[in-house]
Write a structure and sequence with these properties.
Elements (H helix, E strand, L loop, with lengths): L1 H17 L16 E3 L2 E3 L11 E3 L8 E3 L12 E3 L2 E3 L13 E3 L4 H4 L2 E3 L6
Antiparallel strand pairs: 1-2, 3-4, 5-6, 7-8
């Protein structure tokens, strides 16, 4: 347990250091989804160790980051595997509320990562 706590403390200290660079430095760079921070894969913006949602600019966090905006939600991945089907666009299949959704990875069956689509997509 002490090793886990130490790892968390180190990640926290590292992120605190990285979340204090001059703000405009990375503002015009795109978020990378998914990204790995602290051995956890994030498929969207996160507020881990921060009061505000942020994203990494690298697939594996290297200290380059920026705060998220409304334009930063993760993108759908097409085609994706759902059940035994390859889905090529937002679908209502399998959603209890009959809303459209998409997978954030190529294999929804394995990863279970998804988001709602815009009502204009289906």
């Amino acid at each position: 347990m002490d090793a886990l706590l130490t790892t968390r403390q180190i990640l926290h200290q590292n992120l605190i250091v990285h979340l204090r660079p001059p703000f405009p430095v990375f503002f015009n760079h795109s978020c990378v989804f998914p990204f790995v921070y602290g051995e956890v894969t994030h498929y969207g913006c996160t507020s881990v160790h921060s009061d505000f949602a942020w994203c990494s600019l690298d697939e594996t966090f290297q200290g380059r980051w920026r705060y998220c905006t409304g334009a930063d939600p993760p993108k759908c991945t097409f085609p994706f595997l759902f059940g035994k089907k390859l889905i090529n666009r937002c679908t209502r299949e399998g959603y209890a509320l009959s809303r459209s959704w998409c997978s954030l990875t190529k294999d929804y069956n394995r990863d279970k990562k998804w988001k709602q689509c815009s009502p204009y997509n289906v």
